[in-house]
Amino acid sequence: MSKKANQKAKLLYLQQILLEETDEKHVLTVQQLIERLAELEIPAERKSLYDDIATLQAFGLDVIATRSRANIYRIGSRLFTLPELQLLAEAVVKSSAITQNKAQKLVDKLARLASRYQAETLRENLKAQKYDDAELLCPVELRCSNEIVPVVLEYLADSKVKKSKEETSVIEGTAVVDQAFYGWMFGFGNKVKVTEPANVKKDFVKYCKKVLNQYK
Fold first, then answer.
1. β-bridge mates for residue 168, sequence order
2. Contact 152, 192 (CB under 8 A)
3. b/e per residue, 105-127, with b = 16+ CB within 10 A?
4. Is the pLDDT assigned to residue 146 strictly greater than 70?
5. Angstrom distances, CA of residue 76 to CA of 1, 24, 25, 62, 109
6. DSSP symbols for 22-56
7. CB of 95 within 8 A of CB of 103?
8. What is the DSSP string of 159-204?
9. Residue range 150-164: average pLDDT?
10. Could you check whether the bond before residue 139 is cis, i.e. omega within 30 degrees of 0?
11. Mean pLDDT of 183-205
């Protein structure tokens, strides 16, 4: 992109810099903003930046300015707070209706709604949560129709195909065996079956009977 084209997009780049690099704990001075823009081959002067920031504020971006010898700026309120993003990300990761790959992609999108520092905190908190959940992981073995093998492999952790036939395959892996897991299994009907361990198979039968008893 030419310098002239970059200059036309100056407001957009300035907004992006503020959104990605500032939050309640991180600020940028006017000089730092000028340097960030210079890295993008966009020349900027202090007076023009003051006008640009005023334009962004008028547009609705919550840019908080602190007047001092080195005026500093940061983003105030956002569409979601960090605790709200944390709740959404945890719900996505724990959802039985979303595969691990899709969950990770959604978490990455949620992280873009925060500053890069907040995004790092979000991911670290999720890693800690995942570590805690790892203590609840149970080895399982499932026999499923070949048509849903990719979905099962994505859902289970450390999964692999143990053996495969013309119509079905046996898959080994680990999962947090809870109501969400049983609900995920139930959604496939007769396309999937728990073969090991015996206690999980027994509990899944109880879950199925409980669901069916509601229709008697």
1. 145
2. yes
3. ebbeebbebbbebbbebbeeebe
4. yes
5. 31, 7, 10, 5, 20
6. -BTTB-EEHHHHHHHHHHTT----HHHHHHHHHHH
7. yes
8. EEEEEE-SSEEEEEEEEE-SHHHHHHHHTTGGGEEEEE-HHHHHHH
9. 88
10. no
11. 91
Q: What are residue 71's phi and psi, to 5 degrees?
A: -50, 135
The token pair that represents 110 in the structure block:
């949620």
What would the two tokens of residue 192 be? Answer: 């999937």
Helix (H, G, I), strand (E, B) or coil at 65: strand
| Residue 63, C-beta contacts closer than 8 angstroms, at least 6 positions apart | 18, 53, 56, 57, 73, 74, 75, 76
Q: What is the DSSP letter of 85?
A: H
SS3 137: strand
Q: What is the pLDDT of residues 52-110, one digit of tens each?
A: 999 999 999 999 999 887 889 999 999 999 999 999 998 887 776 677 778 888 999 99
How long a stretch of residues is the chain? 216
Beta bridge partners of 176: 137
Position of tokens 């053996």?
163
Distance in angstroms (rounded) separating the CA atoms of residues 69 and 32: 14
Residue type, 215: Y
Taking CA atoms, 47 is separated from 52, 54, 200, in Å, by: 9, 11, 68
Owner of token pair 């500032």: 22
What is the pLDDT of the chain when averaged over all its residues? 88
Residue with tokens 């970059």, as numbered in its chain:
6
Write down the residue that tokens 């724990």 correspond to: 94
Q: What is the token pair recorded at 97?
A: 């209706």
DSSP-assigned beta bridge partners for residue 120: none
**Residue 71 CB partners (closer than 8 Å, separation 6+):** 29, 30, 65
